[in-house]
Write a structure and sequence with these properties.
Chain lengths: ~110, ~110
């Protein structure tokens, strides 16, 4: 059963703590993306990776970090440097450079 | 500046009342336009890809069309289960490929 999984679905953290969001895919897609979604705003790109061991900053990378050690996995760490981390985080993949994106179910992070 | 604007922000329809959602864009080097459906608390679900002006795609009660400046998502005889947020995105190229998303149209279909 191919797809994209994100875990956990809900995540609660205290301010000042780092937290890592998981994104796994078994679609054999090369490119993976992390987006942040806030009410009333379009999806904003945090980081993306076209191939293993390579990733690029998106529009709002400050306070976030990623790794791409395996093709199937693209974890996102939200660090204490992120000023407003509470949001809905979405992971996506694409089959090729010019292609629609496929999204995971999302992780809702709440930081208090 | 590359931009995608969706209208209206919200739309309420009676079951069976057809309507259209608009996605206007200003981008350089358009490579594709995508429509997604997003249910509350879930990830967007891919619906259509359009690549060139004049292109149309259909799926059940939905039909997407594309011109050089905008795309429409036509909903024919909607049902309550069509209630969702519909997102439009474009893929542009300016040295690197990037996706630009609109803020979506929240559709509510009343029985």
């Amino acid at each position: 059963d191919g797809g994209i999984t994100q875990s956990p679905k809900y995540l609660f953290r205290k301010e000042g703590q780092n937290v890592t969001l998981s994104c796994e895919q078994n679609l054999n897609h090369d490119a993976m993306y992390w987006y942040r979604q806030d009410p009333g705003q379009g999806l904003r790109l945090i980081y993306y990776s076209q191939i293993v061991n390579d990733f690029q900053k998106g529009d709002i990378a400050e306070g976030y970090s990623v790794s791409r050690e395996k093709k199937e996995s693209f974890p996102l760490t939200v660090t204490s440097a992120q000023k407003n981390p509470t949001a809905f985080y979405l992971c996506a993949t694409t089959t090729s450079a010019i292609s629609e994106q496929y999204f995971g179910p999302g992780t809702r992070l709440t930081v208090t | 500046e590359d931009q995608v604007t969706q209208s209206p922000e919200a739309l309420r329809l009676q079951e069976g009342e057809s309507s259209s959602l608009n996605c206007s864009y200003t981008v350089s080097g358009l490579r594709g336009l995508f429509w997604y459906r997003q249910d509350p608390g879930k990830g967007p679900e891919f619906l259509f890809t359009l690549y060139s002006a004049g292109e149309e795609k259909e799926k059940e009660r939905l039909k997407a069309t594309l011109t050089k400046k905008e795309s429409f998502l036509h909903i024919t005889a909607p049902k309550p289960e069509d209630s969702a947020t519909y997102l439009c995105a474009v893929q542009a190229y300016s040295g690197t490929y990037k996706y630009i998303f609109g803020t979506g149209t929240r559709l509510k279909v009343l029985a």
